[in-house]
Amino acid sequence: MHQALRRRLLAGWARIICRRPWAVLILAAVTAAASVWVTAARLTFQADRNALITPDLEWNQRFEAWRDS
After folding, report:
1. Separation of alpha carbons 69 and 27, rounded Å
2. Rounded Cα gap, residues 42 and 2, in angstroms
3. Nearest to residue 53, comparing CAs of 40, 62, 66, 42?
4. Do 44 and 38 meet the contact criterion of CB atoms below 8 Å apart?
5. At 48, is the pLDDT very low, low, confident or very high (cuts 50, 70, 90)?
6. What pLDDT score does 52 carry?
7. In 10 A of CB 60, how many CB atoms?
8. Cα–Cα distance measured from residue 23 to residue 16, given in angstroms and rounded to the nearest whole number
9. Is the pLDDT of residue 1 over 70?
10. How far apart are CA 50 and CA 63, in angstroms?
């Protein structure tokens, strides 16, 4: 059953790609451009390693108290 469904889905996808290759390429280019835009707008760099660890952990709270003292 899975093989037949998989074969039908892949055949349908191949049919779409063969019928409208330019539309598929344009869609891929738009998706790539949107990905770059979202990444540039939202990606941040965390220089503080402790910002990557949950502050609720007991050992991390002890370390924070030690570092602050």
Report:
1. 55
2. 39
3. 62
4. no
5. confident
6. 79
7. 13
8. 9
9. no
10. 10
